[in-house]
């Protein structure tokens, strides 16, 4: 502890209460991501996550309502990363011509599924889906969460060739997730570069 000019003690290097809370939340999310990818969601408890983060279980419940809330926060973080630094960001860059956006989206996707942590992220996504299919209440929350993301994408797409914007958005998500799983399991026969061909087939004639 250090004394301030007013004689009150302050915590050295502790940061503000908000900063400490954000640090705690980030530590829990990182621990959950690591343990759930390695052991599965049912194989790592909230106690395990708190211990791995060097915190108490009380710290978990002061930041998250429970396991499902923690899971959704982790899913949110991954999707925010995808939307701000990945294929989606490139596809919606209205400052570039459609051809350039499609090419850059393909490059971004390839970097994501071949880079460090790609396999761990895929395992984690599988765990999300399995957890949602086994737990009815969690499943509805995860389904609603995905529906909102598809809706966000659909708002930027036109209706054409018998496909509604919602249809096309669902197919884009299916391509993104499904191709990643196939590539990580069989990279030689399912190259990541196939994504660009798929996204061209889905969006090549509708981007403007």
UniProtKB/TrEMBL annotation:
DNA-binding region(s) in UniProt: 45-64
A Pfam family matched in the record: TetR_N
Limits of the HTH tetR-type domain: 22-82
Region (Disordered): 1-22
Domain of life of the native organism: Bacteria
GO MF terms, alphabetically ordered: DNA-binding transcription factor activity; transcription cis-regulatory region binding
Keyword DNA damage: no
Keyword vocabulary terms for this entry: DNA-binding, Transcription, Transcription regulation
PANTHER family (alphabetical): HTH-TYPE TRANSCRIPTIONAL REGULATOR BETI, HTH-TYPE TRANSCRIPTIONAL REGULATOR RUTR
Protein name, as recorded: AcrR family transcriptional regulator
